[in-house]
Amino acid sequence: MISNEIRGKLQNIVGGTRLEGAADRCSTVRNLLVEGFGASPTVKGEFESQSIIKEKQVSFLKSYAEKEDLWLESLPSGCQYLTEGGESKVYLTEDGRSVIKIQPTRY
Length: 107
Description:
By secondary structure, the chain is of the alpha+beta class. The chain contains three helices and three strands, in the order H-H-H-E-E-E. The chain has one domain. The chain has a three-stranded antiparallel β-sheet with strand order 1-2-3, with no helix packed on it. Strand 1 (80-84) and strand 2 (89-92) form a beta hairpin.
């Protein structure tokens, strides 16, 4: 079962909300993305320019994850599937303390 705290954080991520004073890694990365790329939802008429932004975000996130030793080559055992969207699947780690987002293909 997902705690209300984790559910709230996921809703903030999806909504593009910048979280003032939050110190956890998830909020830190979200704030960096909002600051660097904005939080507007993709509009079909702007798909090409949004694709370019997505590529920049992928590069930024991979670099950040590698630098912070957060990059995983495979999903750890015991993870619980939470949800998925058009571009990714989200899992909760076995200890319930981390959320892992897997983006198996380019969107």
